[in-house]
Amino acid sequence: MPTLFVDTQAPLDVLVDAANYRIQAVTQVLENLSMRGSIESGTGDQPN
Fold this sequence. Notes:
Layout: H1 12-41
């Protein structure tokens, strides 16, 4: 199981920036997977 270690001595702004980066990375991966699934199934944003 993946584990994220947090430096308890790090400044709060550094922790927030790191969390923001990780959230954006995961969001991008999920959006890419979602888009890939809709392209493969042919249910993209195409009009009827």
